[in-house]
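If I may wish for something, please walk me through the protein I am sending here so I can picture the backbone:
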Amino acid sequence: MDAAKVVSARREPKAHDLSKEWPLALYETLRAAGVSHMSYVPDAGHSTLIRLFHEDPETLANVLTTEEEGVAIAVGAWLGGKRSIVLMQSSGVGNCINMLSLPAQARTPLLLLVTMRGEWAEFNPWQVPMGRATQAALEAIGMTVLRAETAPDLIETVEQATIMAYETDQQIAILIAQRLVGKKQW
């Protein structure tokens, strides 16, 4: 099999036991949609996806010092011909709310994957206020907000969100329920 067929076959989403392997299915869905760049603030909820992007020689993954950097980098990646995604926790939405005006005003796509905190089994009271405000804050500035409660919902939502973002230049945030990510262990 030639190299092009190997790469193409690898990018086709595969059937998985989504209850356990949803991060791998999510990675494959993003790659099938042409996402080749990812920015992130380290987060346990995104750790498998982060690792998969770092291990893929055809992608670029970069760690951020703050979430708003990821918004600017995603806009720059788009202008450079790359599809990019930004990963963050719900607390990070509060850190980058002002920067989110950049893709809206530039009319460039933006896709955020936001792991929720302050919800199911949250142990840290500092996470609760922004967890409650995340969706409303994003909607107030004009972003389309989609929410995934289960692994199958997440994969289907990401498939549709990549079309909405990259084909129609929309700014989309996908909120990944804390119950799906699991309880934080410290």
